[in-house]
Specification:
The structure holds 2 protein chains of 2 kinds. By secondary structure, chain A is mainly α. Chain A has one domain. Helices cover about 80% and strands about 0% of the residues of chain A. Chain A is built from 9 helices and no strands. By secondary structure, chain B is α/β, with parallel strands linked by helices. Chain B has a domain of about 100 residues: P-loop containing nucleotide triphosphate hydrolases (Rossmann fold). Chain B has 7 helices and 9 strands. The chains are: A mainly alpha, B alpha/beta. At the A-B interface, helix 1 and helix 5 of A face strand 6 and helix 3 of B.
């Protein structure tokens, strides 16, 4: 576990030094929110629309920021350094934790931007929203990390990730949208537990499968 | 006592054979040089030994006191230096050494500083690797490789990018492998570098 945390620390340190991902994400999030604000009038913002827009912005920000985790190592040819000093499983977990941290930062940033600028983004159940952000960050990261590892070996990396991610992330995005609607008070029925159970099961299956198959992705 | 057993390995890419049926046995205090023309598969063979590439046929096994060393344990015993091993431009020299010590679960700051002095990098230890010349990078790769006191040392073109002073340090390292109980395998195209090895494999002669 210490090795995994050291890989996470290395990734965070490199990111803090370059600020590539953080800056591009901040610009992306703010641009999108302002475009929404100027193109949709206040009374057109329904709870359903705000919840959906939140996860659309989150999806595209994730695609911008997290796709780089394995791809960057491959492009800069530093993956060999990691492979010589850690097992494929440790590298995967280090990258997964990094993705979760970055995804949480993305979602927290979007949340603050939405609270500030979107009039219907007012919580009736804040705890549920925090839980939604946490669980969906883990789910989305588990999918994007393994896809990033697969794509890092491919030729047309930039195009492949959004294409492959869309069908894999769609169930998570729909569930996250539904949970966000619930936390904003749009529904009267309470089936949060089912949605959360689904997202947790999805992450467990995906992380387990990734740990089983990651060594084959690294094989040359 | 660490031993290496390479059993009849062959490697092909897209049905093009790189080399065929290479076997070798090596142990601590033994050094082996792999030579051959460009494209003969020297680097591929070294990567297969380091478990970075899977052979098409055959197997590579490491043993310690007759017990097989599994890949997850091999990392802490093996170091690899190659021109195609890239470092993190955003991290400093000392941060690389600290990272490698943490990844290999060792703590020897005194040795890290000694190595930086030996390879004339002590004054650049807080500089980011992105600002290093290719020669300085190669020296840092040696510091990183040696800080864990590896039992198995694999070097691909050991003197590439080094100046004369750097070459002398590496020749001393090659000579000292026996004394340090290290299993040393290196590839080279320079005939003058073959004299440091106990044995030489010429991949052209195997084809």
């Amino acid at each position: 576990m210490k090795i995994v945390l050291n890989i996470l620390y290395k990734d965070l340190l490199c990111e803090i030094r370059t600020r590539h991902v953080i800056y591009s994400l901040l610009v992306f999030v703010l641009t999108t929110v302002f475009v929404l604000l100027f193109s949709i009038s206040d009374n057109e913002f329904t709870v359903d629309l705000s919840a959906s827009l939140f996860w659309v912005v989150s999806f595209f920000s994730t695609m911008t920021g997290l796709s780089r985790s394995f791809v960057l190592e491959e492009e800069k040819q530093t993956i060999l350094f990691l492979r010589l000093n850690a097992t494929p499983e440790q590298i995967y977990l280090g990258k997964l934790f990094y993705s979760i941290v970055v995804n949480l930062i993305i979602n927290i940033t979007i949340t603050f931007a939405f609270i500030l600028f979107i009039p219907t983004f007012v919580f009736s159940n804040l705890n549920l929203f925090i839980l939604t952000i946490l669980v969906s960050s883990i789910s989305i990261s588990s999918a994007v990390t393994i896809l990033s590892a697969i794509i890092s070996k491919a030729e047309n990396k930039g195009l492949l990730l959004p294409f492959l991610s869309f069908p894999i992330l769609l169930p998570i995005l729909i569930t996250s949208i539904n949970l966000t609607k619930l936390s904003l008070g749009a529904f009267s029925f309470e089936n949060e537990a089912n949605y959360l159970q689904f997202m947790i099961s999805y992450s467990v299956v995906l992380i387990t499968a990734s740990l089983l198959f990651i060594k084959y992705i690294f094989e040359e | 006592m660490i031993t290496l057993q390479v059993n009849n390995i062959s490697k092909s890419y897209n049905q093009q054979t790189v080399f065929n049926e290479v076997s070798l046995f090596a142990s601590e205090k033994y050094s082996l040089a792999i030579t051959g023309k460009n494209g003969s598969g020297k680097s591929t063979l070294l990567k297969i030994i380091a478990k970075l590439v899977t052979p098409t046929v055959g197997s590579v096994l490491f043993f310690e006191n007759e017990f097989q060393i599994f890949p997850n344990k091999l990392n802490s015993k093996l170091s690899f230096v190659a021109p195609y091993l890239f470092l993190y431009e955003e991290l400093t020299a000392i941060e690389h050494l600290t990272l490698i010590q943490k990844l290999k679960r060792i703590s020897n700051n005194i040795l890290a500083i000694e190595l930086l002095k030996k390879f004339s990098l002590i004054e650049s230890k807080h500089k980011k690797v992105g600002s290093f010349s290719s020669g300085m990078l190669q020296r840092l790769k040696y510091c990183i490789a040696l800080v864990s006191k590896p039992k198995i040392l694999l070097l691909d073109e050991p003197t590439s990018n080094l100046d004369h002073e750097g070459e002398i340090i590496i020749y001393d390292l090659l000579k000292a492998a026996k004394k340090n109980n290290t299993l040393l395998i290196y590839t080279t195209n320079h005939k003058s570098e073959l004299k440091y090895a106990d044995d030489v494999i010429d991949l052209n002669k195997l084809k």
